[in-house]
Write a structure and sequence with these properties.
Blueprint: H1 5-20, H2 26-37, E1 54-56, H3 66-101, E2 112-116, E3 143-147, H4 149-152, H5 163-166, H6 188-210, H7 217-223, E4 229-231, H8 234-237, E5 241-245, E6 255-262, E7 269-274, E8 286-293, E9 304-311, E10 315-316, E11 320-322, E12 346-352, E13 368-374, E14 384-390, E15 394-399, E16 402-408, E17 420-425, E18 427-435, H9 449-452, E19 465-471, H10 476-484, H11 490-493, E20 497-505, H12 509-522, E21 525-531, H13 537-550, E22 555-560, H14 567-577, E23 583-584
Parallel strand pairs: 19-20, 19-22, 20-21
Antiparallel strand pairs: 1-22, 1-23, 2-3, 4-18, 5-17, 6-14, 6-18, 7-8, 7-17, 8-9, 9-10, 9-11, 12-13, 14-15, 15-16
């Protein structure tokens, strides 16, 4: 089997899916075994995508373009491999897309996108430039066709960047070819279109700063992501509904604490964590819908908590109810129950009927009365303190210090997307506090700033090891923790090992502006030309492979921003093995299985196997 650069990159594709889901890819073993038999291979063993797995990489003098060869060649092979099953699946998916959205031909490539337009004749070009005024109303026109190239042309257009600024974009243009295959991954088309809008906004902001219009320090401060948000005046909050804007999203460890009193006729209320609506869509996605119904609903007359998500593409998802009608099927989230078992169960409560005292010695007679009632954390007319906390797998709710519910993240609906907290219903809101919000450190107040900066990578000096780190745009604190810990190893500081964060754009302009400042300050961020959905993690894997070959690294490694890498031990292991070709891997959890629940954030379809 001829082994070329395309095969190596495809191995990264396969290993990225299988390693993350606890399985092992036999195709990768086959590729690498045949690689050893092919001395004429362009690349042998580019990379393996787990933090403890590293592979040897050889770079030949020829500098062929990956995008011009690899994807056309490899995707053609894949189509032949999967045959009729893949064609049938694509046909069914294509039919559904026609029914809901209209005909989409190569959604981000050279084709055209038919966009449903409401009767008011809203101009679709407003997706690109919100300052464009609405078009003249034309009730006779129900849809308009625009070139999808317009939506993404700004992503790869030349910009007036300095040499230092371009260091954050070393892999940017080389991912241009991905737009022609955006239909292969969930949310890929949307991620690129959203990135076009985000990038245009960021470029405008950068130009303003260069022209001296944004030098005011107070204005810069206002643009920074806040550490916390709060509202304490109950008279201003009102009794109907309240919205709290979250400019930079949520991250693991973020929490929202609400003090309120259920009131009104029924005492039902809702907490919605919503994102930004997609271009052309009237309603935003709901990352979490937390619905408290004190008098039940159509399914039950007992008090119930209903958790769900909503998107315009998939409507409401499957409800998570507490108490659950099928408690035996309930799974844990972050090692916590989806619904506390005491919710809805009969409990006994002791009441003290009276207490008697005397002057010299006290004596009491207590009458205990046992009253059976069903436990529910919210009660009409009684105040509560509820906290929603973002975990690694989902969102937890505690009420008056007791864990009540957990809600697992669902596919494409991640905490960084949250842009607003909406509270509505029969609730007197006393106060709300959002804390642990993602924010970057002010470089002016960092004492050890110089020691945290990364030096440019010289093409004349090959690296022993290149480490690519997956990170999300608003994970400022995690990246700073990495800079202050394992990036301080001598091998990293001496430039024998290089570390770069691979980060997609954010839908929030504030986050993107802080991310750009961070990239220019520390020199260790590689920006990706798409909005950072988890389903596009494979594109980041490809970016790491591409970057690792560009800088002539002997070894390429992938890890996450919440991992600690013993760089000294990794290098020591590589030197001890002393092999020219092959694959080095560590512990593999072979008992795990891919997630087949389509609602799961980590969902993997059977077609991937």
């Amino acid at each position: 089997m001829p082994f070329d650069l395309c095969d190596a990159v495809f191995a990264c594709f396969a290993l990225g899916f299988y390693a993350r889901n606890g399985g092992w890819s036999m195709i990768s073993v086959y590729i690498y075994d045949n690689c050893l038999k092919e001395p004429s291979a362009t690349v042998c063993g580019v990379c393996l995508l787990e933090s403890r797995m590293v592979a040897k990489s050889h770079i030949l003098p020829n500098t062929m373009k990956i995008q011009d060869y690899c994807f056309i060649h490899r995707i053609t092979k894949m189509k032949k491999l999967y045959g009729g099953v893949l064609i049938a699946s694509l046909f069914m998916l294509f039919t559904l897309m026609i029914l809901r959205y209209g005909l989409m031909k190569n959604p981000i490539g050279e084709g055209y996108l038919t966009i449903p337009v409401l009767i008011n004749g809203t101009n679709p070009l407003e997706w690109i430039n919100p300052t464009i005024p609405p078009a003249i109303q034309n009730p006779d026109v129900h849809s308009q066709v625009i070139s999808s190239d317009i939506l993404v042309s700004s992503l790869f257009a030349g910009s007036n960047f300095s040499k230092e600024e371009q260091r954050a974009l070393q892999t940017w243009n080389q991912l241009n070819h991905l737009i022609d295959h955006a239909q292969g991954l969930p949310n890929a088309a949307e991620a690129i279109k959203e990135a076009a809008s985000a990038w245009s906004s960021l470029i405008s902001s950068i130009e303003e700063q260069k022209q001296g219009h944004a030098n005011d320090s107070s204005r810069t401060k206002e643009k920074q992501c806040p550490h916390f948000l709060n509202k304490m005046n109950s008279t201003e909050l009102g009794n109907s509904s309240y919205k709290l804007q979250v400019p930079c999203g949520l991250t693991q460890g973020s929490s929202i604490t609400i003090i309120g009193i259920p009131n009104g006729l029924l005492g039902n209320f809702r907490i919605d964590l919503t994102g930004e609506p997609l271009p052309g869509e009237p309603d935003p996605p709901i990352i979490l819908h937390y619905n408290v119904r004190l008098h039940g609903d159509k399914i039950t007359e007992d008090p119930v908590i209903v958790q769900n998500t909503w998107t315009i593409a998939h409507d409401w998802g499957e409800e998570d109810r507490c108490p659950s009608p099928t408690p035996e099927k309930v799974e844990k989230v972050d090692e916590l129950e989806q619904c506390n078992k005491i919710v809805g169960k009969n409990i006994s409560q002791l009441y003290t009927a009276g207490m008697h005292s005397h002057t010299s010695r006290q004596s009491s007679t207590t009458e205990e009365q046992s009253i059976n009632r069903k436990y529910f954390p919210f009660k009409q007319g009684y105040p509560f303190v509820a906290t929603l906390r973002v975990g690694s797998e989902g969102i937890q709710m505690t009420v008056d210090g007791k864990h009540i519910t957990s809600f697992a993240f669902r596919e494409t609906l991640e905490p960084w997307l949250v842009s607003e907290i909406k509270i509505s219903g029969d609730l007197k809101l006393v106060s709300i506090l959002a804390s642990g919000l993602p924010t970057s450190e002010d470089s002016e107040h960092i004492i050890d700033l110089e020691s945290l900066k990364s030096s440019p990578i010289s093409s004349q000096t090959p690296l022993d090891l290149f480490i690519g780190v997956f990170s999300t745009a608003n994970n400022f604190k995690r990246r700073m923790a990495v800079r202050r810990t394992w990036m301080q190893y001598n091998a990293v500081r001496s430039n024998k090992t290089a570390v770069r964060f691979f980060v997609g754009l954010h839908k929030s302009p504030v986050v993107n502006e802080e991310l750009w400042r961070e990239a220019q300050t520390y020199g260790d961020v590689q920006l990706m030309p798409f909005v950072d959905y988890y389903s596009l993690i494979t594109w980041k894997s490809l970016a790491i492979c591409i970057f690792g070959t560009q800088v002539s690294a002997k070894f390429v490694m992938k890890t996450d921003d919440d991992a600690f890498v013993r760089v000294d031990e990794v290098l020591d292991s590589l030197h001890k093995i002393n092999v020219a070709n092959g694959l080095l891997y560590g512990l593999i959890n072979s008992d795990s299985h891919p997630h087949r629940n389509t609602d799961s954030k980590w969902y993997i379809s059977s077609e991937v196997e």
